[in-house]
Specification:
Helices cover 40% and strands 15% of the residues. The chain is an alpha/beta fold. Strands 1-9-8-6-5-4-3-2 form an eight-stranded parallel β-sheet. Strands 7-11-10 form a three-stranded antiparallel β-sheet, covered by helices on one side. Bound molecules: flavin mononucleotide. The site of flavin mononucleotide has 30 residues, from strand 3, strand 9 and helix 9.
Length: 324
Amino acid sequence: MSSADIWPSDKIQSLFGVQHPIIQAGMVWTSGWKLCVATARTGCLGMIGAGSMKPDLLREHINDARNALAEGTPFAVNIPLLRGDVKELVQVCLDEHIKIVFTSAGNPALFTETFKKSGAIVVHVVPTAKLAKKCEERGVDAVVCEGTEAGGHNGVDEIPTFVLVPQVRDAVQIPVIAAGGIADGRGIAAALALGADGVQIGTRFAATQEASSHVRFKQAIVEAGETDTVLSLKNIGPTRMIKSPFALKCAEFEHRCASTEETRELLSQKRERAGMFEGNWEEGQFEAGMGVGLINDIPTVEQMVNRLLEEYHIAQMRIAGQQG
Ligand SMILES: Cc1cc2nc3c(=O)[nH]c(=O)nc-3n(C[C@H](O)[C@H](O)[C@H](O)COP(=O)(O)O)c2cc1C
């Protein structure tokens, strides 16, 4: 069976020029050029996460990815729009002629036109069908609809993937990419059945050999079970993380209704870097989704993607009534 035959839609494959409609998410301190390259080599879309990079470092990662990949292999860059130096990050992407940009955590109206004028494909991450519609009106090429199961920054309305995807599907004509809680091939089959054209996967990719994050973070994902993440920091920006000592401190702040300033002060000590990049279990922040309960190892990206495809195939057969 050719790879084209296994997917119900080819919208994502033709939009990005990839073999599989599986996207490795942009993730702070986690998705550097090595993860992006390893993913791109499997026929999925790899992505460099600019959220934790200074502009010059982003440029380096883009060049390293280009040098490692065969000419013309597609890959993307994720830019969280809340970054103070967002204009400089955007400029790096324009200078480097990045062809696929995923924007998140902000207003899609901000840079879509600029990127479109440069010839880039623009995808925006949304937590509601209402915002998906707005993205479509603004000329965005596809949306990632991210449910509350997802690791990292999250929508305030806490809509789960299972009800978000079909509502976004009904609201827009542009391709829909499901995200949040997809950690194996069964999740991919379910997302496509709900109407998505593709999936974006974060936490499962974070626990791979090639992720740039600290091994302690990868181990924490493996050790965590279904009840071991929490949606925290709700007063300044809901973020799903593993229940580490820092997460418990955030919960305590929330419990006593600490002020926004106090919470920001708690965060100002570079918690994301300390956790995900330096592996400091006591002080750091470890962003991960509820799918941690489905993750039990730290394989290479190639091994993991092969497994996703196998599991997806089995799930499809099951739905078709050909097995168990
Ligand atoms: C460690 C980590 C860091 C993340 N950082 C970012 C980021 O910088 N920008 C962004 O748009 N989303 C970020 N996310 C969200 C992912 O892009 C993705 O949408 C999400 O992980 C999907 O849900 P899943 O974790 O259940 O697979 C992050 C997620 C994780 C787990």
